[in-house]
Design brief:
- By secondary structure, the chain is an all-alpha fold.
- 64% of the residues lie in helices and 0% in strands.
- It has one domain.
- It contains nine helices and no strands.
- Helix 2 runs antiparallel to helix 3, helix 3 packs antiparallel against helix 8 and helix 7 runs antiparallel to helix 8.
- 34% of the residues are buried.
Length: 161
Amino acid sequence: MNPSLSDQLDENELNLLASAIPRIAILVGGADGDFDSNERAWAEKLVHIRSFNSPSGLEELYDLANTQFTDHMEELFGSYPSQPRDRNEQIARELAPINDILAKLDPSLSWMTYKSLRSFAWHIARTSGGFLGFGSISQEEEYWVGLPFLRKVEAPDGEEE
């Protein structure tokens, strides 16, 4: 059985990790200057789905993020600069401490968390544009979808990329 996040993190670290999820939705969804209703709705739905359907060890992360997700996301969005570049630079600075949190975790859980955050970003980026709103990632979103402020976490031996 995989260790849980709360077994390895204190409450502040776990809260920072959970608050990264709405921030990532804002970061990627708003990178092109238009954090539209489709991106917001999909972020909310995706967090809800992941709160009960996540890899072992990450359920509590998405369960915590799911708690008042929309209100938290809207409150954060309203507190950031309106210019996408300024907003994203601020979010990147706020999320940089996640590197220390990931480094503290068991290697398998660190890798799953890193992979999950990047997957979440990718799903948000794919929400708008393209055919029926799916399939097109803007140039601005393309840069941020990789979460460039996070150091890459390598898959532990025996784990698939």
